[in-house]
Amino acid sequence: xxxxxxxxxxxxxxxxxxxxxxxxxxxxxxxxxxxxxxxxxxxxxxxxxxxxxxxxxxxxxxxxxxxxxxxxxxxxxxxxxxxxxxxxxxxxxxx
Length: 95
Known about the structure:
Layout: H1 5-8, E1 16-24, E2 28-37, H2 45-49, E3 56-66, E4 73-81, E5 87-90
């Protein structure tokens, strides 16, 4: 049986890990999975958010909900400009 590629990313010994985060912009609440380095540089969410050489970050398995109410959207991936982020937290840290 063949393993899916996204399952291989979290396998022991791989260079990456995934973390679910929640981001708010001025208009939307966005939750998705951010791929991080397993260790060292860029292994924390704050490393990725503060990386001045990166203007965008990409999330997978994304939900987007308007803060003013309305239907939630589901997307396989989303690329977000860092300048639009008001705040970000680990999704497991929020109710």
